[in-house]
Design goal:
Layout (H helix, E strand, L loop, with lengths): L2 H6 L54 E5 L4 H12 L3 E6 L4 H13 L4 E5 L5 H15 L4 E4 L15 H22 L8 E5 L12 H22 L4 E7 L7 H5 L24 H8 L10 E4 L7
Helix pairs in contact: 2-3, 2-8, 4-5, 5-6
The chain binds nicotinamide-adenine-dinucleotide and magnesium ion (MG).
The site of nicotinamide-adenine-dinucleotide (NAD) has 29 residues, from helix 2.
């Protein structure tokens, strides 16, 4: 059976099941995609919930922007939000047009409005433009998911050039300041901001020195913004994924030789699939998490985390 066919037959996320066996432990063949990588070219295919995520009306009528919503965790979140009743804008890099079109189609097929906004978040003015465009086209904004990220593995500090260092900080953390600042004028009480951090914020990965540092900064930013915005009725929280099978990994996100074992050392013994992250974002976006502020949900297969 092809991976797509396997994903087509999966039960929905509310079906009682053994988390060890929900997905097979994958052993991705060594592969190399140019950055930022395409979901369409991943081997094996990742599960973004296209066939399985079942909504229960938890985000009815909400308007969301998900950065990096074309693939991986962002795509799974965008699809789940639409299935829960939200209209969704996704941002992505122009090279990711095929992935973005697929996710936009899934959102539309779920009966919700889809807005696709290409552009580079390393560009300061785009960070404001993407938020304003999403709010214009959706007729408002009440959920911002800061999820786009850049991750390039290098052997050591001596191999980390200034271009990579600056780009990683631009995309992962400086853009988050800028999109959040631009969103403030749109967000009404009850709105939520959700930032994607990582297990490596707590357990730094040596080949990901720059990336891990940005994720630690995201944690601090999240808690600080949560404090600043709580009295306005805007909740800010984070999701910290462990090893999840997405295009980030084979586009230089991991040393090539480590791909076949990706995620196997977690207590669950397998990598996570993007759609397994979606319920955490849905929970933090929905009014049911009204007293959850400045928190981090760890979705990492059991890796010890604070
Ligand atoms: P992904 O490649 O599917 O998504 C990352 C997205 O970031 C890309 O689709 C791209 O649209 C966007 N992006 C990258 N550079 C950009 C730029 N310059 N301008 C605009 N957009 C840009 O991979 P993913 O794993 O789903 O990553 C989503 C988030 O999850 C990232 O923040 C990543 O750090 C985080 N994360 C991933 C893992 C994992 O194991 N996959 C683990 C922990 C955290
Ligand atoms: Mg992508």
């Amino acid at each position: 059976m092809s991976d797509d066919d396997a994903h087509r037959t999966r039960t929905d996320q509310l079906h009682f099941q053994d988390p060890v066996a929900r997905y097979p432990s994958i052993s991705p063949p060594k592969q190399d995609q140019p950055e930022p990588g395409l979901d369409a070219d991943l081997v094996p295919k990742a599960d973004i919930g296209e066939f399985s995520y079942r909504g229960t009306g938890r985000l009815t009528g909400r308007k969301a922007l998900v950065t990096g919503g074309d693939s991986g965790i962002g795509a799974a979140t965008a699809i789940a939000f639409a299935r829960e009743g939200a209209d969704v804008a996704i941002s992505y890099l122009p090279d990711e047009q095929p992935d973005a079109e697929k996710v936009a189609r899934i959102i539309s097929d779920s009966g919700r409005k889809a807005v696709a906004i290409p552009g580079d978040l390393a560009n300061a003015s785009f960070c404001a433009d993407v938020v304003n465009k999403a709010a214009d086209e959706l007729g408002g904004l009440d959920i911002l998911v800061n999820n786009a990220g850049k991750q390039i593995a290098v052997d050591g500090l001596e191999d980390l050039d200034d271009d990579q260092l600056e780009q990683t900080f631009q995309v992962n953390i400086l853009a988050m300041f800028r999109t959040t600042r631009a969103a403030l004028k749109h967000l009404q009480p009850g709105s939520t901001i959700i930032n994607t951090t990582s297990i490596v914020a707590y357990q730094p990965s040596p080949p990901l020195l720059d990336y891990s540092s940005t994720k630690a900064a995201i944690n601090n930013f999240t808690k600080n913004m949560a404090t600043q915005l709580a009295s306005k009725g805007i909740r800010v929280n984070a999701v910290a994924p462990g090893p999840i099978w997405t295009p980030l990994q084979p586009s230089d996100g991991q040393p090539k030789e480590e791909l076949p074992e990706f995620g196997q050392s977690t207590p669950l013994g397998r990598a996570g699939q993007p759609t397994e992250l979606a319920p955490a974002y849905v929970f933090l976006a929905s009014p049911e998490s009204s007293y959850v502020v400045g928190a981090t949900i760890h979705v990492n297969g059991g890796m010890p985390s604070p």
